[in-house]
Hints:
With 185 residues, this protein is an alpha/beta fold.
Amino acid sequence: MYEVVLLIEKPLSQIDAHQIAELYSVATEPTHIHVLLPVEDASARVESALGSIAASEVLATSALSFPDVDLAKIQQEIIERSQAALDQSINALTLNGCEADGEATSAHPVEALITAVRNRQAAEVVILTRPHLVAEFFHVDWTSKARRRLGVPCLHLIEHRDVIPDDAAEIGDQRGRLDGDHGAG
């Protein structure tokens, strides 16, 4: 079995799941994809929100007051949403013909990736993220860090959004016009 570890930032779109399935559709041996989805930390989220509020005070904006924050409740909600996103991603891969499983992880994404690659003896890594131009330029993005620390190929893909049906029809209409089909029948 050819083992691949896929690190994602958010749930896979159908387009991304299809693209990943296509990468391995010509493999000579069965491929298994293990999906890793980092879980956000509730305390970091609250800290970030409070930091934004503090910055607004410096800029002379009125201060907002928050009721007591239940970090455990927020963390549980985050874990539930992450698990749902992971399940959605695994289902998208399965619908595209891939054998897949996965885990939501609270560890640092690159550390979790390294552990998964070693534990699963993965032959390849795919990292799917939105564009991070500054981090990529300075080689401090997940893919650059993984390439420095892993002895397996690391492919970085940029995520796509699913096309909504109205956009798909409009794109089809535009293609028809570009191909010389002006609606004459």
